Amino acid sequence: MAESTGLNEACGVFGCVATGNWPTDLDVPHTIYLGLIGLQHRGQESAGIVTSMGNKNSRYKIKKGMGMVNGIFHEEELLKLRGNLGIGHTRYSTLGASDTSNVQPFVVETLHGLIAVAHNGELTNAKSLKTKLLKHGVGLSTGTDSELITQLLTHTPECGEPHGANWIGRIKRIMSETVISYSLVIMHDDKIYAVRDPYGNRPLCLGKLLPATAFAGKKEVDKDDLDGWVVSSESCCFNSVGARYYREVLPGEVVELSKEGVKSVYIAPRPNDTPPAMCIFEYVYFARPDSIFEGQMVYTVRQRCGRQLAKEAPVDVDIVSTVPESATPAALAYAKQLGIPYGEVFCKNRYVGRTFIQPNMRLRQLGVAKKFGPISENIKGKRIVLIDDSIVRGVTMIPIVKLLRAEGAKEVHLRIASPPIKHPCYMGINIPTTQELIANKISMDKLAEYFDADSLQYLTVEGLKHAVQQGIKDDENDRVGHCVACLTGQYPVKIDW
Amino acid sequence: MAESTGLNEACGVFGCVATGNWPTDLDVPHTIYLGLIGLQHRGQESAGIVTSMGNKNSRYKIKKGMGMVNGIFHEEELLKLRGNLGIGHTRYSTLGASDTSNVQPFVVETLHGLIAVAHNGELTNAKSLKTKLLKHGVGLSTGTDSELITQLLTHTPECGEPHGANWIGRIKRIMSETVISYSLVIMHDDKIYAVRDPYGNRPLCLGKLLPATAFAGKKEVDKDDLDGWVVSSESCCFNSVGARYYREVLPGEVVELSKEGVKSVYIAPRPNDTPPAMCIFEYVYFARPDSIFEGQMVYTVRQRCGRQLAKEAPVDVDIVSTVPESATPAALAYAKQLGIPYGEVFCKNRYVGRTFIQPNMRLRQLGVAKKFGPISENIKGKRIVLIDDSIVRGVTMIPIVKLLRAEGAKEVHLRIASPPIKHPCYMGINIPTTQELIANKISMDKLAEYFDADSLQYLTVEGLKHAVQQGIKDDENDRVGHCVACLTGQYPVKIDW
Amino acid sequence: MAESTGLNEACGVFGCVATGNWPTDLDVPHTIYLGLIGLQHRGQESAGIVTSMGNKNSRYKIKKGMGMVNGIFHEEELLKLRGNLGIGHTRYSTLGASDTSNVQPFVVETLHGLIAVAHNGELTNAKSLKTKLLKHGVGLSTGTDSELITQLLTHTPECGEPHGANWIGRIKRIMSETVISYSLVIMHDDKIYAVRDPYGNRPLCLGKLLPATAFAGKKEVDKDDLDGWVVSSESCCFNSVGARYYREVLPGEVVELSKEGVKSVYIAPRPNDTPPAMCIFEYVYFARPDSIFEGQMVYTVRQRCGRQLAKEAPVDVDIVSTVPESATPAALAYAKQLGIPYGEVFCKNRYVGRTFIQPNMRLRQLGVAKKFGPISENIKGKRIVLIDDSIVRGVTMIPIVKLLRAEGAKEVHLRIASPPIKHPCYMGINIPTTQELIANKISMDKLAEYFDADSLQYLTVEGLKHAVQQGIKDDENDRVGHCVACLTGQYPVKIDW
Amino acid sequence: MAESTGLNEACGVFGCVATGNWPTDLDVPHTIYLGLIGLQHRGQESAGIVTSMGNKNSRYKIKKGMGMVNGIFHEEELLKLRGNLGIGHTRYSTLGASDTSNVQPFVVETLHGLIAVAHNGELTNAKSLKTKLLKHGVGLSTGTDSELITQLLTHTPECGEPHGANWIGRIKRIMSETVISYSLVIMHDDKIYAVRDPYGNRPLCLGKLLPATAFAGKKEVDKDDLDGWVVSSESCCFNSVGARYYREVLPGEVVELSKEGVKSVYIAPRPNDTPPAMCIFEYVYFARPDSIFEGQMVYTVRQRCGRQLAKEAPVDVDIVSTVPESATPAALAYAKQLGIPYGEVFCKNRYVGRTFIQPNMRLRQLGVAKKFGPISENIKGKRIVLIDDSIVRGVTMIPIVKLLRAEGAKEVHLRIASPPIKHPCYMGINIPTTQELIANKISMDKLAEYFDADSLQYLTVEGLKHAVQQGIKDDENDRVGHCVACLTGQYPVKIDW
């Protein structure tokens, strides 16, 4: 239930390179468009696509807009965007910015040609990087970390020219100056660079675009038959562009995509040999359940969270249920683990009305009831445990329990498949201020009462980590670790804020 | 899976009368707006609201538009629509009509003042009614049955004036001239007439608007405290407007809503004492699961369909699943009945892209894959039975089975929680032509093979009827019956087409 | 200066028939589009086009919209409207009607097929016609006279069928029931009927569409080479559609346009042998100066008005000028007649801003100054006479004189090339209420002082009539007469209001 | 007739400072809005407004958009833009840029706070300035000279900090690096800097905002009563914002506007004591006739051009006329000088239709005829001289002469009130390529024949200069000079292109 309460992902990035030359079987702009549709859950404020024919002096074709991917790109625009490679971006709605100057990808002209940059994440040392650029005399126009990265890429420190047109060198320099958090796709000439910060805080993965023959039939695909390569924040969109999951971009890795294929060109070290720190909430809430991180499907992890929760916090009830729909895998697993029937208690109205400045008390009282229709037969006289994935501000939980009570629930127990959120995130997630977090407002032992629930229990931090990490193969060279800063207050790096 | 394959509901109607006078606690236009949001699944092409202060010469305030309810009504429009009563309508997308002349409610001036009419249904004798009006010299501008009803209401037969300003008399006259199918809300002066055809083919029900105090707290509400009354195609929207289910409008009944309350003013007889004939597909597919028809919740009926299907067509598999999300209750019940685990095999992308005139074969091949992400762990190596609520043209089932096979399903069985659709509907449902229906194209014994499934079975007509009717209280005076014409070809009345 | 002060034309009508069959050299929808652009000054609220292939059962193609012609019709719409004949309409902004139900042409289905109707004018006996239809039991949905006409055309009086499919008979019947004011174009099957009321109150004329060869070169055109025929409210648009002026539709005449050519089929008599009564303000203000009425160009008539004004009301000044731009021909002629130089005193800003609810007194004071930039050299120290075509409410004249005074004008005299407007119009012109008319608010001898002018004189009614009528050939059979009701209060017919 | 043939102004700039603090009588955003409406003729592609409360850390309020000023700014936006000072910009449509990233004013954050910049002009040494910035490592995102200026302002050369927060110093540095052409308004903290390049190539002038009492009545205004100060590309908009013309910003001058008033802070020298070089086409065509440059009204200069043309190229005809409407003052003066009557031969349709990809030859042939209705009485049998302000590509002149011939003109002579355009402009004017200019395509002695005219003569360069310069007071310290490069090929500076 994080969605409606302020826990918001910052962005999705996508890139695509065709192995052939236009016109080809692979329609690059269309593929990026479908990729962004598949990443829409990571950002709904705005979106953009930049493509290029990939020659030295190719003009970049740019289309950006406010709103949903569907509303921005129409057939004629996609036709105009034709090219041999390109990158795209979806952005979350943070402020009601009235113009498109903040919409990514950013394109700038540099001494060595055009570059386009799309970024997911938030730089923890943005402040000092910004001061550095301002001192250098660069005027900044958007106030975004992504513009910082773009200008830093073109930046020539101390008026020298240490890297010239060597873009990999320039990327390495940035990675040494800022370590968290960013997943980047950068387009220059005929190449896309996929860059993931040393901590791997935000996800990024690679896929190969199969030829039409491959997904029409079922035969194996020869490597030389590939139509192209994609890079994406999540693998969930691979199915919808005709791509097969290839592998993750590793923490700190720089991968070069071109028509020759993908090539790992660098792996940046982490300071002090600290473990990686992928955001654990990608598993808990942000990612689509059919995405794959660290070799495991998110859906599977959510089921493990539900099973773990059942072990840590069982309850004797008639029915296990959930608030549709992100906590369903956890709820199904919780039910199975305890051998209690799973049933639906709410029907979610897919068409939710505009939130008006409600004209009177009557309609204000209705609140969340607009969204959920109760399934009486599963509520009346029943002892219910409601599984949710997380609680942020707790504002929707109150009317939901009230709705169940009004429909005659005998008992209402709450079980949350993640620990209490208590601390701010400085790495790309839009969390309400610390004071607004319900876990900081109400003491744990008063919380059940606050929601008018018969009992309430969260998953432990250890339980969550166990659920996530038990599925990760513990390679010798690859350590396991996740960022749980919003739960524990222990940040992977010192925050320069 | 009827939704994406052409089985479409025609409309939703809604009406609201305040017990007090403006300004009151009850915001009539806002209430209708929220009611239409709750009926949005019954029609997404266009919507309209008409309100009135309810005095003899009150001007009607009208706002109609193309598209979704949310896109049409903004706060300022709702403020302009203020009134003491009003009606609304949502309409299904049939043709790409480029203007709003077909959008309901229709408002006409008559010799006896203004009337507004909203209609759900389709008249089986529209042709002869139309000829009658044309012969009378009325020019018809929209080609809709709803305009026919509106003009018939104002019509003065044989140039006489048998009913004058007696609108109940006029409604009775129409009910004697056309018996199926219509659920109407008609506004005139300070009254709304709720009218359901003698066969009760389309649903219509009443609700009372509780005062804010009632849903804030939990106390019982005094009858005199009511804020108003609503009439709606379905009860699912009552929760979101702060209304409590009161009762159904009976087949053939005319109910008058005014600030004095609701009053049954007439019950039209059915010819030859035939049984009622509510559309059984309202239970199977169209209605929202939290709506109540004939004393039972639709969700409950769908679960009974699943249970009945398990009895009629069991199968030995590892996992019971469904294509999200309308068949979920049937699938859960099917699984429970057979004691087989229920699990999700698809993650549905909520953000589906525009359907372009696909530029090349590659993207055309992707098809339905854009919408569904497979949950591998529930598919790989598993024997799966997929429950769906209905099959219409069968076009999406093919790629869905292919997707399961591609992910490594060991067996794929299909079970459909309703019988094969074989015949056209003339009573308000947009069904593809008979030739397009898969049940008419492929013989039953070839169908599993056609979908590349290991087996396929439908629920029987008797099984469906039993699942629906076993929950209806068999009152002495109230006979039980449903329209199953699209399954059997036996229509409740002779079709004048 | 009538434009900005509330004297508004009601509508423009246009029709077009191709002599060939689609596909032909003549693009019918494009021709109507260009025709409506040329009639845009007669109505800017909304516009519509209806076309047909012209066969017995041809579907009508309809496109209507709110706003300017340019904003409504785009290339793809015009392509969809392809047909062999069609009619169009532009409508004036009267009320801020929020939907398109009032937009013409109206299309209705009748017992004898489809008809489309476009109307310019206003029926003086609308009230009794409406009562007749309502009594007959027709529900009326738009409140417009044009819907009345459409329903009257389909109407079968006393339930008999006196005319059946005989549309000319039906048109004659309407002309006997209502005599003023209407210019109609009616489409049915392969014909367009052009109908002008017996008084000829609103203009209507015919043109022949020359083949491309004709306006490419200069050669004479063979009659058989014509591409088609057009009918239009004004001839000013003929040039822009490649048509040559043919003749006026006479008062009371019904002309049938088809691919065979034009045919006069009826001339309705005027009651009591009264003279015709074309609206004299079509000459004074409404029409475009390059239109032709009664054998004379409007520009010429306006020059005669200026000359007559110079004779009736000369003044000794340094410069003759005008408020741009409708009074320019009158001003040029006034100057020439008196031998005084003509010069411009105002530069009109073509881009006028939105009228906001002005936030403070400062900006409210600016008023008309936003529109006009003074040309100082023609003002400073000069004695000026300002010629205007008419004064309605007089609100803009005050700041205009103030502007001239502020720029140092020595004397400011006002001469109006038409008499004072004192009475309402019931025949299609939107005039402010009688109380708002400046000629009724301030006595004639106080008016100069009211405007802070040194003198003010209007053209006399006789002078105006003389200026208009001296150019009309006085045929034996054709009497001369014009409606000057708004000036004298003497209406051509009794007003049933 | 330059307008429709490709001679396009690049931009308009506007700035406003209130003397009081918000809330005040002066509504700053509204004033800028009205100012931009008055500068709309200088750019119709896009517009923007930036305002500030003027405190050290005031957030800048920004609203930009594509299209006309009227379409971009609505009342609610202007309310949000409230501030004590602000600047605005209108931009000409050059390319069909699909997003707003090029829309000015530009706002950037610098080490010393926010600055906003609006620019009219084009830098002749843009290329080397750009290289300099790129070498410094600044990524450029818009490809506009205006972004160059903005980044140069924030630039710290050689990594030193020669000017720090001293913005006047920074402006001086820019003026030493680029001398033509720019008129700038720059906002920082509580000040607006108005900057005109040393050659004064683009206009810029100052006005004082009178209190409401001043333009309500007529009394003189005390200096202390001023509501504020404005700076604008042209004075024509002063009337519409309640401002009185104060003076021009001199070539090379930097003026500081603040609530304390206006202060001249610097005058940059011109290299080698060359004369100033204001674009002479501002007089000929671009500027609105009621604007004042160099102490004279543009209208007056255009009349002098007409008079000079009459002296240089008289012709014996019956009527002097013009193509509406920019050449009217020249035509009136030409007529007066020769004692030949002036008359109108064309009525211009204010509502011109969309230019479609014309579907067939017939409509393509119509061309310019759509725009102009001939006034026959002034054409038929007449010897006509048509005065136009300029000819660029000559494409519209052909159909215009044909139209006159078709209406029966006996002779058609052409006189152009400016010399032939033969060379490109590198200083802010969008001129077609040299090859497209008619003066380069057809030899002078063949041109009359090419247009099918009886004779054709242009004003001489000397004649034009005389007409412009005779009205400029020749102060001792202020030399007179204008840029006539597009006529002679002699540019005021060497072009680095």
Automatic annotation (TrEMBL), chains A, B, C, D:
<comment type="similarity">
    <text>In the C-terminal section; belongs to the purine/pyrimidine phosphoribosyltransferase family.</text>
</comment>
<dbReference type="InterPro" id="IPR029055">
    <property type="entry name" value="Ntn_hydrolases_N"/>
</dbReference>
<keyword id="KW-0460">Magnesium</keyword>
<dbReference type="Pfam" id="PF13522">
    <property type="entry name" value="GATase_6"/>
</dbReference>
<dbReference type="GO" id="GO:0046872">
    <property type="term" value="F:metal ion binding"/>
</dbReference>
<keyword id="KW-0658">Purine biosynthesis</keyword>
<dbReference type="InterPro" id="IPR017932">
    <property type="entry name" value="GATase_2_dom"/>
</dbReference>
<dbReference type="InterPro" id="IPR005854">
    <property type="entry name" value="PurF"/>
</dbReference>
<dbReference type="GO" id="GO:0004044">
    <property type="term" value="F:amidophosphoribosyltransferase activity"/>
</dbReference>
<dbReference type="GO" id="GO:0006164">
    <property type="term" value="P:purine nucleotide biosynthetic process"/>
</dbReference>
<keyword id="KW-0328">Glycosyltransferase</keyword>
<keyword id="KW-0808">Transferase</keyword>
<feature type="binding site">
    <location>
        <position position="388"/>
    </location>
    <ligand>
        <name>Mg(2+)</name>
    </ligand>
</feature>
<feature type="binding site">
    <location>
        <position position="326"/>
    </location>
    <ligand>
        <name>Mg(2+)</name>
    </ligand>
</feature>
<feature type="active site" description="Nucleophile">
    <location>
        <position position="11"/>
    </location>
</feature>
<dbReference type="InterPro" id="IPR000836">
    <property type="entry name" value="PRTase_dom"/>
</dbReference>
<feature type="binding site">
    <location>
        <position position="279"/>
    </location>
    <ligand>
        <name>[4Fe-4S] cluster</name>
    </ligand>
</feature>
<protein>
    <recommendedName>
        <fullName>Amidophosphoribosyltransferase</fullName>
        <ecNumber>2.4.2.14</ecNumber>
    </recommendedName>
</protein>
<dbReference type="GO" id="GO:0009113">
    <property type="term" value="P:purine nucleobase biosynthetic process"/>
</dbReference>
<keyword id="KW-0408">Iron</keyword>
<comment type="pathway">
    <text>Purine metabolism; IMP biosynthesis via de novo pathway; N(1)-(5-phospho-D-ribosyl)glycinamide from 5-phospho-alpha-D-ribose 1-diphosphate: step 1/2.</text>
</comment>
<feature type="binding site">
    <location>
        <position position="486"/>
    </location>
    <ligand>
        <name>[4Fe-4S] cluster</name>
    </ligand>
</feature>
<feature type="binding site">
    <location>
        <position position="389"/>
    </location>
    <ligand>
        <name>Mg(2+)</name>
    </ligand>
</feature>
<feature type="domain" description="Glutamine amidotransferase type-2">
    <location>
        <begin position="11"/>
        <end position="260"/>
    </location>
</feature>
<keyword id="KW-0315">Glutamine amidotransferase</keyword>
<dbReference type="InterPro" id="IPR035584">
    <property type="entry name" value="PurF_N"/>
</dbReference>
<feature type="binding site">
    <location>
        <position position="425"/>
    </location>
    <ligand>
        <name>[4Fe-4S] cluster</name>
    </ligand>
</feature>
<dbReference type="InterPro" id="IPR029057">
    <property type="entry name" value="PRTase-like"/>
</dbReference>
<keyword id="KW-0004">4Fe-4S</keyword>
<feature type="binding site">
    <location>
        <position position="483"/>
    </location>
    <ligand>
        <name>[4Fe-4S] cluster</name>
    </ligand>
</feature>
<dbReference type="GO" id="GO:0051539">
    <property type="term" value="F:4 iron, 4 sulfur cluster binding"/>
</dbReference>
<keyword id="KW-0411">Iron-sulfur</keyword>
<keyword id="KW-0479">Metal-binding</keyword>
<dbReference type="Pfam" id="PF00156">
    <property type="entry name" value="Pribosyltran"/>
</dbReference>
